[in-house]
Amino acid sequence: MYCQFISSPLGHIKITANADGITEIMFSSATEHGTPSRFTELAAIQLQAYFAGTLQQFTLPLAASGTLFQQHVWQALCEVPFGMTCSYADIARRIGNNNAVRAVGSANGRNPIAIVVPCHRVIGANGTLTGYAGGLEKKAWLLKHEQRL
After folding, report:
1. Among candidates 27, 6, 25, 29, which has minimal Cα distance to 16?
2. CA torsion, points 70, 71, 74, 76, in degrees to nearest 10?
3. Cα angle at 115 between 112 and 117, to 5 degrees?
């Protein structure tokens, strides 16, 4: 496993990868030093460009572990356009299972690749912000950041 930390406007971010690609991007209170790889370095460059407002589409090899259902949900999240939002029901429809709204919410909450797999773009059906592993203040910041660009 490879690991790298970067600073962002939202605090420190930990980037983890294996030989196949990025396995995790998470907000972190730690600033440890890890062993970077070409994948973590590429992710660091793209995340810094995202925060600088010069990148709207990530092009990273992703290698997150999850169930087949979670993988489908995470892929659908990647199709939500920059600066836009959708509901859990929208994602359920996108994966072809209208009755899976709660399961989509659960898979969304288990997304290990923050920002790049944009689970922050999923909001409640009534337009309110709903849970986010990094905290609602970070979710609000990310949405505002994307909508002003």
Report:
1. 25
2. -110
3. 60
Torsion-angle region of 61 (φ positive above 0: left; ψ -120 to 50: alpha; else: beta): beta
CA 37 to each of CA 20, 25, 29, 76, 124: distance values in angstroms, whole numbers, following the listed order? 11, 14, 21, 27, 37
- Please say whether the beta carbons of 141 and 115 come within 8 A: no
Q: What is the pTM of this model?
A: 0.93
Q: Which of 12, 27, 23 is nearest to 3 (CA)?
A: 23
pLDDT at residue number 149? 63
On the question of pLDDT at 100 being above 90, the answer is yes
Count Cβ atoms below 10 Å from residue 47 Cβ, excluding itself.
21
Q: DSSP label at 121? A: G
Residue from 3, 78, 86, 119 carrying the catalytic annotation = 119
- Helix or strand holding residue 48 (H, E): helix 38-52
Kindly state the tokens that stand for 144.
């505002």
Is 86 a residue of the active site? no
